[in-house]
Amino acid sequence: MILLPNNIWKITGQKSGPTFCILGGTHGDEIVGVEVVDKLLDRFVLDRSEFEWETDQFSGTLYLGFGNPVAIEQGVRGTGGADLNRSFNFDDLLSEPSQSDRADLIRARELYPILKSTDILVDIHNTHADSEPFVCTGTFTKNHKELVSHIPVHKILTDPNFILSQDVGKQGLGTTDSVVNAHGGIGIAYETGSKTDRSHVDQVIQTLLGVLGITKPQTCLDQAIYSLDAIIKAPVEGTIEYIENFYQGWYQVKEGDKMAYINQTPICAPISGVLLFQKHKEKVFEGDSIGYIAKIDDII
Ligand SMILES: [Zn+2]
Hints:
- The relative contact order is 0.14.
- Helix 1 crosses helix 8.
- Helix 5 links the parallel strand 6 and strand 7.
- By secondary structure, the chain is an alpha/beta fold.
- The chain folds into two domains: 215 residues, Aminopeptidase (3-Layer(aba) Sandwich); 66 residues, CATH 2.40.50.100.
- The strands form two sheets. The protein has a twelve-stranded mixed sheet with strand order 3-1-4-2-5-8-6-7-9-16-14-11, with helices on both faces. The chain has a four-stranded antiparallel sheet with strand order 13-12-10-15, with no helix packed on it.
- The chain has eight helices and 16 strands.
- Bound molecules: zinc ion.
- The site of zinc ion has 3 residues, from loops.
- The site of zinc ion (ZN) has 3 residues, from loops.
């Protein structure tokens, strides 16, 4: 029996089936997921003060809710220190709880039992840079391939060489999908476009209804698998300004391309590939990671 954390609802189908988990607002300032979860709750939950419901709409169990309600309320990514989606490192999670623990780590501990029991996780995110929707998953198995074939994205970002976790200096990145994947489930982060772009809300809801088997799932053709390959580091301290198109997610660069400036110092692409997760107009320190480059692995 899993204790339900606040802001998570459990919806049980009349027939047995997989355990699903759908989260929005794991990063509190990414509002598309919050809006999607809000609309899905309207579909399954008549009274939000009751946390357990039954449905004849799908088979299995669905945990549906808001990843980080405190951060959502404050309109921030996380509430200090590593954000929630970097707080599921097993070392941190399984350490003795203490009164001085960060709020995001406390929330990670609350969500951990649900994620451990989840067969299929879709954690809904937005990017800061303009970007087409895509899927992120550290691990990519044939089960992931089956799931993502029903998500309308043409790009899947994987991290087989643990570039992101190296970057934070931990054994694992500590994301929601990493917990699900480590326990034999299929976990993905669904990046549904930029933070300011709400045009994908209805499409994301339709996609999730397909994943739950409520509607016939769509099939997306032409999906390419990319793997993260390099970290771009700030050469000096200052405010980073990407040059026009180099701020776009998935923008193609060639090794040596001049992409950005910090003060007068140019930043060039360390390798050829596509740009992801660029920081822009933010103050950075020398050696900070300011973006990543991924390379294409496969087309499915
Ligand atoms: Zn996010």
